[in-house]
Amino acid sequence: MSELVKIENLKVYYPIKSGFFDRVTDNVKAVDDVSLTIETGKTYGLVGESGSGKTTIGKVLVGLENPTSGKISFEGQVVTTIKQKKAINYNKDVQMIFQDSQSSLNPRKTIGDIISEPLRSFGVPGKIGAGYDGQRSFEQDKINARVLELLDIVGLPARTVTQYPFQFSGGQRQRIGVARALATNPKLIVADEPVSALDLSVQAQVLNFMKKIQRDYNISFLFISHDLGVVRYMTDNIAIMHNGRFVEIGTTEDIFDNAKHIFTKRLLSAIPSLDVKKREENRAERKRVEREFVQYKNDYYQQIGSYMRAYDLESISETHFVAIKKGEN
Question: What topology is assigned to 1-93+187-201+212-260+311-329 in CATH?
Answer without folding.
Answer: Rossmann fold (3.40.50)
